Amino acid sequence: HRKLLPNNNKTKPKGASFLFWFSPFLAFFLVILLLPLRLRNHHHFDVLWCSRRRLMSPPLEHDYIGLSEVPSAAVGGGEEGALNLKATELRLGLPGSESPDRKDKVGLTLELLPRGFVSGAKRGFSDAIDGAGKWSFASGESGSEVELGKGGGLFSPRGEPVAGSSGGQGTGGKDAAAKAAGQERKGAVQVGSSVGDDRAMAPAAKAQVVGWPPIRSYRKNTMATNPSKNKDDADGKQGLGCLYVKVSMDGAPYLRKVDLKIYKNYKELSSALEKMFSCFTIGQCGSHGIPGKDGLSESRLMDLLNGSEYVLTYEDKDGDWMLVGDVPWEMFTDSCKRLRIMKGSDAIGLGKYDPVNVLCYIF
Amino acid sequence: MTYFPEEVVEHIFDFVGSHRDRNTVSTVCKAWYQVERLSRRTVFVGNCYAIRPERVMARFPGIKSLSVKGKPHFADFNLVPYDWGGFALPWIEAAARRCPGLEELRLKRMVVTDDGLELLARSFPNFKSLVLISCEGFSTDGLAAIATYCRGLRELDLQENEVEDHGCQWLSFFPDSCTSLVSLNFGCLKGEVNGGALERLVARCPNLRSLKLNRAVSVESLNKILARASHLVDLGTGSFAVDHRTDAYHTLMNSFPKFKSLRNLSGFWDASPCCLRAVYPVCTNLTVLNLSYAPAIQGDDLIKIICLCFKLQKLWVLDSIGDKGLAVVASTCKELQELRVFPCDIYGAGTTSVTEEGLLAVSSGCPKLNSLLYFCYQMTNAALITVAKNCPHFTRFRLCILDPGKPDPVTNQPLDEGFGAIVRSCKNLRRLSLSGLLTDQVFLYIGMYAEHLEMLSIAFAGDSDKGMIYVLNGCKNLRKLEIRDCPFGDIALLKNVAKYETMRSLWMSSCDITLGGCKALAAKMPRLNVEIINENEETDEFEENLSDLHKLEKIYVYRTVAGPRNDAPDFVWTL
C-alpha cells in the first residue's frame, strides 16, 4: 500500500483513527483518481502546467481531442530537465514512485489523423472526415470501403469531387490522390489501431459525422429506442442508432449530453466523460482557484483527500439509481436513461461498491 | 393621414396584419410609431439575442402574444453545445413586469426552466396558450405549475421538447374547474401520465379539439379517452400496439368511425399493421397524417392506408414507404401540399428506401406540392429538373442525400443543374437545403435566381470562396444562412459584410474561417455579434496565444442591437 504524505493525514478534519485505517485505500484510490488528470488538453490546472504547455509547439499538442501521446521529443525547445512531462504530471505518491501510464483512450473520437495542422487548430471532425473520405477513394469505388461511407457519410469531400469510380470530374490526378490517400489511410489505421480502436474500420461504422444526417435528436432518440425492428441488420444495429442521455455531475454548473451508442464499452464511456468533466474535478476551476506555484493548490489536494472521488451512476428504466458497470454493456445502454457523476460518499449503498468497480469509474 | 385622430389611425392599423407591414408603418413618423406600438398585439423575435427583452416590453406594452426563438437551427443536430444559451427566463421576467396582459407565449429552441414556467403561470392572469418547440431544461414540475395556476388555459402544446420526468401527477394539477382546454399535446413526454386524470380532464373539456398523447399511453387508455372525446379534430395516439385477440383491440376497431370531425392523425408509436386498420374509417376525411414514428409498418400496409386518404394535404412517413408507395401517394393524394420522408435506418444500404423515382412520381401526381423534406440515398439531375418543371410552387425544398457529396449516380455529375432548375423554376422558394455533390456553380444559380430565398442550408458543398460570395451577393431576401463543412474562408466571409446586417444570422462550422477573419468582421460591423464557439479548446490559456491564422470550428454571426450577450458560457467568445 502506498501511504500518503504523513502530514496530510494529520490535518484531516475527520476522525484521525478512521483515516489512519482508511488511508491506504484512500491513497490507492487517489492514485488512480489522479491518473486521468494527466489530461493535456485541459487548461484549468496550475500555472506550471500552463507554462509547460506553452513550451510545446502548438501543432503537436493540438491533436484532435488531445489524445495522442505527445512524444517526448516534441517537447523540444524550452525543455529543461526539471520541466519534463513526467515531473509535472499530477500524481500523488512519493517522489519517484511510478504510476502506470494511462493508455490513451479513444473516447468520443474518430480515428486520429495527424494531418498537417494549422497552428493551434483542432480541426475536429472535418479533418478526420477528410482523411476518412480518402479512405473510400482508396478503394476506387463506392462499394467496398463504403462501410465508412455508410455510416451516414464519413467523408467530407471538400474541394474534392467524390466521383467514386471512373468518370468523375475529370481530375486526372485523382488516381494519384487515391493512392496517396490509401497510404495515408494505412497510416491512419495504424494510429487508430494502436489505441485498440478499430471502430472506424467496422462495417456500418458507428463513428459518424456529428449532426449528419440532419435529423433532430428527438427523432433519433425516439427511433433508437423503438423495439420494433423492421429488418435484420447484420450487426444488429437498428434504426437511427443514437441515444443521447444527459450527464450531470455533482457540483458542476451545467449538464452535458452524450450519445451512448458511439461507445462500445464502459471504458470508452468513462474516458469520454472524464474529458468532459475533468475541469470540475479539482475543486475550483476557471477564474477562481488560484493555482499554487508548486502544482496542486492546497485546497485542491484537500478536496481530493477529503474523499471527493466521483462515481458514475445511472438512472435505469425503473427510475432506480445504479452504479455503472454492474451489467453487461448492451443491457446498460438499453436501460440507461441518464447519467450522474456523484460524489463517492453519496454513492454508498448503490449496488456493488467495491474498489475494483469504483476504480474504473473514478474521476 | 396624420390629421386623423389616433383612434382612426389605430383602427386602420388593425388591418395591417403582418409583422413586416407593421414594422414599416411604425417608421413613417413619430405619431404613427406611437400608435403602432401601443396597438401592437403580437411580436415575433427571431433571435432572442438580437434585442433585450426589456426593450421589447417597453415598446409594446400591450402585447398579447409573444414568440421567441433561441438557438441556431443547427442545434437540432447537436452542432451547438448544450449550454450555449437561449434562456427563456429573461423574457418571461420582462413580460411579467411590463406586459401582464400576455396571453400567448411561443418559444422555440430555448432553455426553459421550471422556475420560469412557474413565474409564467403566476404572472399572467389571462394566459391562454403555451407552445414550446424543441426546448429543454424543464420538467413535469414546471408543467404542474402551468396546470395549477393558469386558469382558463386553452392550449398547452409541447413539441419535441426534452422534458425531465418527475412523475406522472402533473396532469392531476389541472383543477376540476378547468374546462377550457382546446389543445393539449404532451407527445414528447417520456414518462407515464395519470390515466384517470387524463380521462377526467378530457371529459370535462367540451372544447377540446386537439389531443396528442405520448408513447406511454396505452391502447386501453386511448379507448377510454376516445369514448369521451368525439369532437376531436386532431389526434395523436399513444402507443398503438395491442394484441388483436384482446378486448382493447376490438374496442379500438370500433372507436374511430364516430369521429366525424377528425382531420389530423399522428402518434402511432410502435404501431402494428393490424392496429392500423382501426383508422381506415376516418381516412377519407384526413388532411394530415403522420406515420413517421411507426417503423413496423411496411410499405404494403402503408399503401393500404394511403389509398384511402384522398383528401390528404400533409403526409409524414418513413422511407419504408418505398418508391412504390410514393407512386400510390401520387395517384391518390391530389391535394397533397407537404411531404416529408424520413429515413428508417441510416446504416442500411438503402434497400427499402426511396429514390428519385418516388419523388418524380409525387411531383407529377401532386401539382399542389409546395413543401418537401426528403431523405434518400441518391438523386439525379434529370429527376430534379423534371420535379422543378412539375412543381413550380415549392416554397420549401429540403433534399437530404444521405451520403454527403454524392454525385448523380447515372452521370456522375454534381447536382448543380438539378438544384439550379429548382431555384429557377420555383420563384417563391423561401427555404432550401442542399446535399449531394455540389460545386460553386449551384451557388451561382442560387444567387441569380433565388430571389425570395430566406433560409439556405449548405453542407459538404462548394469548391471555393466564390460559392458563398455568389449567395451573399445574390439572394436579396436571405435571412438565415447556415453552412457546415464547406471550403469557404475569410475572403468569402469578408466580401460583403454589409449583407449580414440584412440577415438574421449566419452559422458556419467546419469551414475555413480564421480568427483573423472574424476579428476583421467584428471590427467592421459593430452591430453584429460575432460569436466563436470553442467547445473542446482550452480557452483562457490560449486566448493570448491564438494567432489570427487559427482556424475556427464554429462561428455564429447575428445582427443585434443588444450588444454582446452577458450570459455566454466560457467557450463562447464574442469578438
TrEMBL record, chain B:
Q: Name one GO molecular function term.
A: auxin binding
Q: Name one Pfam family in it.
A: LRR_6
Q: Which GO terms describe its biological process?
A: auxin-activated signaling pathway; pollen maturation; SCF-dependent proteasomal ubiquitin-dependent protein catabolic process
- Indicate the segments forming the F-box domain, all copies: 4-45
Q: What is its main location?
A: nucleus
Q: What is the top-level taxon of the source organism?
A: Eukaryota
| Localization annotation | Nucleus
Sorted alphabetically, the keyword list is: Auxin signaling pathway, Nucleus, Ubl conjugation pathway
Per the record, the pathway is: Protein modification; protein ubiquitination
> Keyword Ion transport on this protein?
no
Q: Which GO terms describe its cellular component?
A: nucleus; SCF ubiquitin ligase complex
Checking Gene3D superfamilies in the record gives: 1.20.1280.50, Ribonuclease Inhibitor
Subunit: Part of a SCF (SKP1-cullin-F-box) protein ligase complex. May interact with auxin and auxin-responsive proteins.
Q: What is this protein called?
A: Transport inhibitor response 1-like protein
